[in-house]
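Morning!

This is the sequence you dropped in the shared folder:
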Amino acid sequence: MSEDQDVTVGVDTHKDVHVAAVLDQTGRVLDNRGFPTTMRGYAQLATWAESFGTVAKVGLEGSGSYGAGLLRFLTDYGLTVVEVDRPDRSTRRRIGKTDTIDAESAARAVISGRASGTPKTRHAQVEIIRALRVARRGAMKARIQAGGQVESLIVSAPEPVRQLVRGLAGKKRIRVCAALRPGTVSDPATATKLALRSLARRWLALQSEIDDLDSHLAALVTAAAPDLVALPGVGIDTAGQLLVTAGDNPHRLHSEGAFARLCGVAPIPASSGRTDRHRLHRGGDRDANRALWRITLVRMRCHQPTKDYVTRRTAEGKTKTEIMRCLKRYIAREAFTHLAPRPTEQAPWPVRLLTADEFTATIGTPPTPVDVDEPPPFDFWPYYDAIPHDHFAGHDFSREEVTNVWQMPDDIHQHVLIASGTPNVFMALVLNLRTASVLGHHLLDLNELYGLSQPPMTA
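The structure's back. Tokens below.
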């Protein structure tokens, strides 16, 4: 076989044996073979694949489970690995399912471009956090189960036993149960005491285990993403989950929208014919979605700018569910900027501060409001990040909240207003829709322009 050709490898991973298939760039199967899930087997797989030509890409199923070891080896070996989902169900119905067919399907998914995602690496600090979170989650479930069993036993316990814990709750009740001395098991009362003592001591042991894991996780998460932990409403647990979702290589996610889609908070197009709409995304990482939901709840209750936003959107007729969906998307974007910060030294367009006359010249009458929740015509945030700090004139724009979008009647210019912490003060970005570029920016101070006097918004 010629060594000058490019080949694509597909791997169907299992616990003991990985099955690989090699295809040329036209989709022709060159060979397939199984390899043991050991370091020697991984080396044999890589050498065997290279005997057919230059390995362009390797499509790997189960890169986060059975294929994790092979992923580490192939990455260190210098090969490009692409994450592949399970084979399409229609393929299984038409030609059946075997390990060889699955390996070939993985390679074809890479060749066709249907699979193009970069798998998460598992060799740095986030993998340490993930492993500890797995242990903590198991301990939490076991502790909750033990606590529930204690409660159910007390409810049905003989009256003398119930008298011992009557009026007690929480840890005080657990400690009393752990200190019981049942003696010889000769009747239901002594048997219940023995069971309560066993469950209570199990609960305390699990609590000690959780406290120990929490101390390690707090140090690791704070060191890995200090800016993320400092965000309002973000705790160690939710920050740890978002770190695990992004992985050790968050830059594999090409945009904030990709991270929002990964967390299941980005709406999915559901248009047909003349209907243009989106539907709720029920996929993605549900644990990350749950973490964003918890952050949203905390902010809605304790974060004043978010409470003001909820009040304004409620007055506009939005339901609580719709408001929470918008907040979750915003928080996902905000979190991603701290997981994988966008480079600020370069901007795709020249950064230009527009004068008042230049800004006014782009305004047409009457402008049409655009729903701020609609996807923007292009990603203008790299331009916003490159704006010099002194152009903000001391106003706080850290929330990066788009409050108004105005479409001008010339169908060329669009104004995006980003709110500051000061009422009626915005950073206005002027978009050119024809060239898909940012014309410039202007600090729009309506207080100064119209002689308004408003107290500054609290942070």
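Headline: The longest strand covers residues 437-445.

More detail when I'm at my desk.
O.
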